[in-house]
Amino acid sequence: MKKGSKATEPDSNGIVQETPTNDVRRSDVRRGDARRKYDPEQTKRNILDVATQEFSAMGLTGARVDAIAERTNTTKRMLYYYFGSKEGLYQAVLEKVYGDIRALEQDLHISELDPVEGMRALVEFTFDYHDRQRDFVRLVTIENINGAKYVEQVKTFKGRNVTVIHTIEDLLARGIASGQFRSDIDPIDLHLMISSMCFHRVGNRHTFGTAFGRDPSHPRLRARHRAMIVDMILRYVKKED
Amino acid sequence: MKKGSKATEPDSNGIVQETPTNDVRRSDVRRGDARRKYDPEQTKRNILDVATQEFSAMGLTGARVDAIAERTNTTKRMLYYYFGSKEGLYQAVLEKVYGDIRALEQDLHISELDPVEGMRALVEFTFDYHDRQRDFVRLVTIENINGAKYVEQVKTFKGRNVTVIHTIEDLLARGIASGQFRSDIDPIDLHLMISSMCFHRVGNRHTFGTAFGRDPSHPRLRARHRAMIVDMILRYVKKED
Amino acid sequence: MKKGSKATEPDSNGIVQETPTNDVRRSDVRRGDARRKYDPEQTKRNILDVATQEFSAMGLTGARVDAIAERTNTTKRMLYYYFGSKEGLYQAVLEKVYGDIRALEQDLHISELDPVEGMRALVEFTFDYHDRQRDFVRLVTIENINGAKYVEQVKTFKGRNVTVIHTIEDLLARGIASGQFRSDIDPIDLHLMISSMCFHRVGNRHTFGTAFGRDPSHPRLRARHRAMIVDMILRYVKKED
Amino acid sequence: MKKGSKATEPDSNGIVQETPTNDVRRSDVRRGDARRKYDPEQTKRNILDVATQEFSAMGLTGARVDAIAERTNTTKRMLYYYFGSKEGLYQAVLEKVYGDIRALEQDLHISELDPVEGMRALVEFTFDYHDRQRDFVRLVTIENINGAKYVEQVKTFKGRNVTVIHTIEDLLARGIASGQFRSDIDPIDLHLMISSMCFHRVGNRHTFGTAFGRDPSHPRLRARHRAMIVDMILRYVKKED
DNA sequence: TATGAATGAGAATTCATTCAT
DNA sequence: AATGAATGAATTCTCATTCAT
């Protein structure tokens, strides 16, 4: 990588709809007063958003504090003021990104669905989530290169994952009870397989694209993969007659 | 990360049996000539081996030229002499790693097997390969963070992947002809799914381990996953009666 | 102190006769070749000499790595190349400074002198040494502000001091044996008092000068103090008739 | 010095170095008024006390404005409000510390004692003072590293020292008159020697401890040193028969 | 072919100080 | 009188790369 190439890779901007970084001032309506100069929460959020992009695009070592600061509404100094260090910021990013997922998960209410439909819903949600949250996928990848050193300190991390396992356990139990599902499946293993297929096509789409000249994020492929994974999982869990 | 902590992650030494980096000099008896003082090939290989470990452990930006040189039998200067730059070395590593795979693949002779057995053999080979070649998995991951920028220039890269697709195409065609397989499967998609499951559990084992307290590389889990993936793929490709 | 005031205090350059930093090249006569571009030992010595001045003038925190590098024949980078960090350099300076004293001490041959004369010689040597080596005095002072944190890691430190105590023990023993000295004196305590008087007038000469309008380093005062301290110590150790 | 460096009030009196810094607000009952929200004097004193510790522990450059502010009941802003700058605060600390000494000195009434007893009392006072006021000793040391730049501006500084000299002059004169003391002693020189021995063992106790494995502030050593210094000075000033 | 010394351009971090409320 | 947020200018340290031998 040559000196000075600070530009973010084009693909990394992904879908970060939830936090419109730039037009924040307009949302500054609390207490009825107009735009305020000092708003720590906003400053922090702004830094976090930019950092999320940079880290997810460049990795922990590849990211440049200067680059982050530059694209921020404030200065590098504030970044240290609020997050202490590059690593502290990186960890805060991880924390935020993992936190974001939780909210969505809760809305699924899978336990109210029939086992087969529930399983389908779960796979589709997992697929859609990874497909849309590329930053999340990249950050997880980066963490694995770091040996998960930082994610271990993220309190919310373990909790979140346990939730998914409980959902799967519940689905399997009900499916077995109703005679629809096999009884020899380990929920964590199943989760791993679902994740694998949803994660890999996003995380490794560059080498995949290079190898086969196909972009897995193309809408048509996207739909086909979605159906395929659902199909594969359902065939696997269903009891053979 | 504290200052000076340049140490490689402990886990990264993994399974790199194939390349005994250190006692190279003793093996210097090839082609009948006695041990020579200067052996360019040897030096290059030594550098490459060390670099493979460092890059796979730390990523492209995370890797340190100094760290590589230090663990080498030679000096930093030679590294530049032979590979021109850090990036050049990285690319040479990619090239070597992909080259290594080819040999193995040829030995499978899948085309001589019955479709079902061939498919099983292919999945098992893919599984075993990823399970053993952690460096390979890591390097692919790293390449994806780099947007596959470097792997594109690796000549052997595309070729290798096309081969796999041909193998799958052949299996599917024969399976369809014999009435054993479904006829609506895209070979590249199928390859993607097989890869996903074999790759993810290795590449993301750290976050997985942190999340669920399970190490996917544990022998027992390893065996279970292997069977599970074979099972899942076979159920998927087989024609339902 | 305002930004940019990097200048050393005028008085701190004091008497650094022993290491003529600048005209080193002339001494480059080994192996008969003319001035060589690469001479690591010389580079290191050069850095050390400059660093000694800066640290002794400004303290550990007050010293600026940039300021040191600037007055060096090389660059800041080499400073890190050889000494690792600012602290590493500081410690190397301590090591050197303490090492320098040893040589001188050995030349005294106090054990060959009559107890009274030996004691006089010791005090005079101690006086002269402190009087001349202001950098040494300042560095010791600085170390005490640092809680002796760094000097503890200097291997030569303890050894050196033990030597002095042995010398005093020997003097006292012989003086007692000959009936010239009192027998109730602790050698370490005595050493402390001698040091005190030799050290304080140098180390605290600035506040002393401010308080009394007298510069203790003035030749006349210097001579008077020297005689006075000898006198005081001798009166103290001598047996009263 | 920077703009707005407001002078400290001269009445920052009281020998309160060990002042309980934290629960100051409760003691706010003076002049009969109830606890007030804002008490400038209190705030200033609080800042000064904390600053004294920090400066004496870390030196002028080593001290951190943030560190001082943090341990204060108020904020960094007030520190600048009252003292203008870091240097201004440092100077205020010096001023306070020197002011503190005066009170004690007056209580000795040395002029009423017999010359020998007076000299003993003076040495013992000097010893005890340094032994107890480590912050004072450290700050003087620090000032000497700064070339006494700041202490020069402390009005009380010179005055205090002149007083001691007068005391010594008086003692010497009376001792000479009574035939007890030698007549060839310079009072300032004598003061220097007394100070040296009392100061050094406190100021350099860290390197001393490291060198000899003895802590000079240990009660037993302390008592021995005290007697030793008195003894040494008295032997020196007394006329030999 | 091989090597230890040297380097300039960054990169992370810290510090005293000021602003807006 | 008091405060939390903000800042620019240093300051220490690192990195890929090249030079002289």
TrEMBL record, chains A, B, C, D:
Biased composition, class Basic and acidic residues, residue ranges: 23-43
Signal peptide: none
Compositionally biased spans, kind Polar residues: 10-22
Pfam families (UniProt xref): TetR_C_29, TetR_N
Database matches in SUPFAM superfamilies: Homeodomain-like (SSF46689), Tetracyclin repressor-like, C-terminal domain (SSF48498)
Record Gene3D superfamilies: Tetracycline Repressor, domain 2 (1.10.357.10)
Keyword DNA-binding in record: yes
UniProt keyword annotation of Signal present: no
UniProt keyword list: DNA-binding
Region of interest called Disordered, as start-end residue ranges on this chain: 1-43
Highest rank taxon of the organism: Bacteria
DNA-binding region: 64-83
Occurrences of domain HTH tetR-type (ranges): 41-101
InterPro entries, alphabetized: Homeodomain-like_sf, HTH-type_TetR-like_transc_reg, HTH_TetR, NicS_C, Tet_transcr_reg_TetR-rel_C_sf
Protein name: TetR family transcriptional regulator
